[in-house]
Amino acid sequence: MASMQTECLHAARARLDRLWARGTEFLGCRYAIMGGAMSWLSEKHLVSAISNAGGFGVIACGAMSPAQLEEQIAGTQALTDKPFGVNLITMHPELNDLIRVSLDAKVGHIVLAGGIPPGPAIRAVKDGGAKLITFAPALALAKRFARLGSDAIVIEGSEAGGHIGPVSLTVLAQEILPHLRDVPIFVAGGLGRGEAILSYLEMGASGAQLGTRFAASVESIAHEKFKKFFVQAAARDAVPSVELDPRLPVIPVRGLVNEGTKKFLAHQAETRDKFLSGAITKEAAQLLIERFWAGALRRAVIEGDIETGSVMAGQSVGMVTHIQPVAEIIQELVDQAVKALAAREVV
């Protein structure tokens, strides 16, 4: 019986390897599990830990300068000889320089996120020999990005942490996976277990991207208060930011409810009243709202201000039950997928 179970597990593992073979080949790693690019968190320590554990780490450039990015890439390369990528925001004023820094450092995969990538940026990545990854919130855009030169696409559901779109991964996967086979597609948003990853692989995905579970890992540089907040939170605690008045739009960001969340609502109400009374212009009001969270993510992640800081987290935070090493998290995800496949053979 024991030998039969072992054989089933080996066969299941081989089946999993076949299911995400396109993703592992594209990324150049053992497991087609990408680390989500999280500002302040996805730096050299976490990125190298994910890559060393067989996944694919991604540096979150965010608002870094070219010099800062260069330092992070060099630091990551000093900690791992495995492949990793760099996530660049398309609206960054020094985007071209950031691409050049990445290419000069021989980074093999560049993610252009936060909007439709400009043509010159796409050409620079492609001409420089790197593989281009983009985010697509709809089938039409996914097809467009593939035509423009994306080598792979991430579809991220609204369950994710941080800036989110309006559609869940469950729906996005049904809309996109059956209809786009030209490039590898990685699913993201709300993923916390291997069985869920397996289900999307069987629908046609080439791999998955996770952020929230890695944010609370041992190797994450996040403050211990930040990590413990994740452990204590339930899925329902990770909610999108609320827009009080459509005349003063708020970019939806999913995070854990705290005093800062409540103060943001009060701030919106106060700012709206000033605008309606004519005390300030609409532009000034919009700026006041957008600046409310300035520096709040760093306060939460680095300083441990989980009361008024921005604690960005996906709904999978409910599956963060303790602080684990990255390698343990990845192995757990793989084992869950393998056991789910093996169980079918036993039945």
UniProtKB/TrEMBL annotation:
Entry protein name: 2-nitropropane dioxygenase
One Pfam family hit: NMO
Keyword Oxidoreductase appears in the UniProt entry: yes
Annotated GO MF terms: dioxygenase activity; nitronate monooxygenase activity
Signal sequence, renumbered to the chain: none
Alphabetically ordered keywords of this record: Dioxygenase, Flavoprotein, FMN, Oxidoreductase
Gene source species: Rhodopila globiformis (Rhodopseudomonas globiformis)
